Amino acid sequence: MQKRVLLTFTAAAAVAGLLGLGAANAQDTVKISVVGPRTGVMASGAAVTHWPGFKLWAHEINARGGLKLKAGQKKVELIEYDDRSMPGETIKAVERLAAQDKVDFIMPVYGTGYNLAVAPIFAKYGYPQVTQAAVTDQIDALTKRYPTLFFVQGSTTSFATSAINVLKNLKDEGKIGNRVAVVNVADAFGIELANAGRPLFKQAGFEIVYDKSYPLGTQDYAPVIKAAKAANPDAFVAWSYPPDTFGLLEQAKIEGLNVKAYYSAVAVAFPAFLGKYGKAAENVLGAGGIQDSPAIRDYYKRHKEVTGVDADYWGSPIYYSFLQVLQQAFEGVGSMDRKAITAYLKKNKFKTIIGEIDIRNQRLDKYWTVGQWQDGFFHAVAGVGFSEYKPVKLKTGW
Amino acid sequence: MDIIIIGLLLGGTYALMAMGLQLQYGVARIMNLANGEILVCGAFGAIWFFTASKMSPIYALIFVVPIAFVVNWAIYQVMMLPLVKRAKNQGQLEVDSILATFGLSFIFIGILLAVFGGEFLTYSYLATPFLIFGEPYALNRIAAFLGSVALCAGLYVWLHWTRAGLTLRAIAVNPAAAGLVSINVPRASALAFALGGAVTAAGGVLLSMFLTFDASLGVIFTLKALVIVIMGGVSDVRGAILAAFILGLTETAVATLVDPGLTLAAAYVLFIAILLVRPEGLFGRRST
Asked: In a designed cystine with A395, which of A283, A330, B50, B220 is the match (CB 3.0 to 4.6 A)?
């Protein structure tokens, strides 16, 4: 009996230690929680985009002494929960953080569906939810329903539209013909993009010479690429997810699919993409893209130094920008008063590594949608709300 | 022609995924749900070796295979043997081993996450075209195919022409009767389980040349291997090899002639059809 009591006590102490609930430092820190996938299907993306961003941000704030609040400087203490890539777990974790742990702030979760699933909880407890990695066509309806909800990465349609516009411009300039081969992964984002894209290609004057889907987890893309090549396209567009983005490009290279424009949606912006393909990645188009600047280059350097991993060229700098926004909002308000922070976000503009940004309308006024690998940097070549983009280059072989 | 070559290459890939599980389930009678994680471990070993040394990932087999053998042997001795001993019949052992190895798969995922992190790991090796009848095919897939054929042939010869192989086949047919003719069943089962793990890890090394891996991907490989092993007939390694190639050819034919979106559906239709006609699998023995 005694042994069991002791065991329970040890376990409780261990849990308390893990969560960092030591009473001594409780008053000098601000408890900020991050929920996201450490395991499961979403984990690989989150390991690049989600987790390191918070780590870098907290590290830098603590290095300069903490958040400057009215009650004095307070260090940031991150509390992390794994949702195992299951929305049910995400909901449970956020509910618990809000109702039981009563943390000072809850960061957005990872993925569109996951963010929408927890929006009612954020709204109920009044935590502002500046979603990241969430792309939807329902921004209007959702922001109206949840006054605490903010979107920073645009709509599904805007991604399809921008990609197609990039190709249209090339066609109108006479650089490529009007034949396009389109494939998509038979899963949420891939299907949405393909459906949004079909009429847009027609409007833009393209002839779709190949249009097929393939299941998630396909292990051999030879049949898809062979058939696409046989259709003799001028441009190739894949509304793809990470594993297939890699598989398709490898096959295209082997098969010699010599299109003048090659676009693949998710994961082209990942550092692993450049790492794997090197020179073959040059001039490949993909979702995301970042405008080059000294501030951005410096950010990539710090990211690698502090977190040990390379940041991506889509979500990562946006994550960091919005952590800068939140930091300014926390310090502007001078406390962790959730209502006041939400109001502050809706009233002010903020300075970040991607320039001055504005989310007063519960959505970001400008974002990049299409990028292209040029000399080892994934430059933004299209977007919404910016005045200048890097010119698109044609793909000239692998 | 295209379809046959691509189909055979894919079949070789599938055989690499399934052979190890075949040994573990068919002979050692352990339904190992952590099989896919072992494969991912092998792949990560190769990726780590390639990035660190810049030498051919094939050399990674030299250390991956023995390590996998020892680790799997230890898993059998520590985790599986107590289950085998207390199981009153095959059904109970299956249920117990499924639960135990399901848990084991999470332990593996956790270790991989802690050691390698959660991001995508991949590299480029032999990603060059190789012409067969004037058509380009990926050299790394051909290399993996050759590796797969060598493994299949080696296993087949070993199982059918050596005494140790005969012992394993005897256990696959009837463990109780094998014990009666003075075969050390626990030891031979441990050997089969360890060998299965080593083969799976070797498969991971070869597959890492062209597939992209992350720590959580194992379950995909477990499922595919499971389908192939059941389709082939649990007690005969030839069944799994044949099933792997049939699956590869079918998926490629459907993707080329009908629609790539239907490959998954075709695979499962084939699975159901074979089980309807031969519930014991292609090479399985009818229970008497």
From this structure: A283
Left (φ > 0), alpha (ψ -120 to 50) or beta: where does B31 sit?
beta
For position A23, what pLDDT does the model report? 43
The answer to whether A269 touches A313, Cβ cutoff 8 Å, is yes
Q: Which of B118, B141, B260 sits opposite A214 (nearest CB)?
A: B260
Rounded Cα–Cα distance for residues A269 and B249 (Å): 34
Paired tokens of B71: 């680790």
Contact across the interface for B124 and A243, Cβ inside 8 Å:
no
- Cβ of residue A201 closer than 8 Å to a chain B Cβ: no
Question: Angle CA(A125)–CA(A126)–CA(A127) in degrees, nearest 5?
Answer: 100
Q: What is the pTM of this model?
A: 0.83
For B2, the closest chain A residue by CA position comes to A223
CA distance A251 to B124: 12
Token couple for A214: 């393939």
Residues of A with Cβ-Cβ distance to B124 under 8 angstroms: 250, 276-278
Q: Which of B122, B137, B256 sits opposite A227 (nearest CB)?
A: B256
Query: Which CA distances in Å does B204 have to B13, B65, B229, B281?
Result: 10, 10, 17, 25
**In B68-84, which positions are buried (b, 16+ CB within 10 angstroms) versus exposed (e)?**
bbebbbebbeebbeebb
Q: How far apart are CA A297 and CA A310, in angstroms?
A: 12
Q: Is the pLDDT of residue B257 over 80?
A: yes
**Shortest alpha-carbon distance between residue B284 and chain A (Å):** 27
pLDDT at res. B286: 63
Dihedral of CA A204/A207/A209/A213: which sign?
Answer: positive
ipTM exceeding 0.85, yes/no: no
**pLDDT recorded at residue A67:** 93
Domains and CATH numbers, chain A: 2-155+293-367 (3.40.50.2300), 156-291+369-384 (3.40.50.2300)
Helix, strand, or coil (residue A232): coil
Q: Exposed, middle or buried by CB within 10 Å (0-12, 13-18, 19+), for A117?
A: middle
Nearest CA in chain B to A247: B211
Of A345, A323, A319, A318, the C-alpha closest to A332 is: A345
| DSSP string for A331-371 | HHHTS--HHHHHHHHHH-EEEETTEEEE-TTSB-S-EEEEE
By the 10 Å C-beta count (0-12 exposed, 13-18 middle, 19+ buried), B260 is classed as buried
Closest among B139, B142, B145, B112 to B124, alpha carbons compared: B139
Q: Cα–Cα distance between B36 and B18 in angstroms, integer? A: 10
Bridge partners for A181 per DSSP? A210, A236
Are B49 and B59 spatial neighbours (Cβ–Cβ below 8 Å)?
Answer: yes
| Structural contact between residues A60 and A75, judged by C-beta atoms closer than 8 angstroms | no
* Number of CB atoms found within 10 A of residue A120's CB: 16
**Residue B34 neighbours by CB under 8 Å, 6+ apart:** B101, B102, B104, B105, B108, B218, B222
Which of A185, A220, A245 to mutate against chain B (most B CBs within 10 Å)? A220
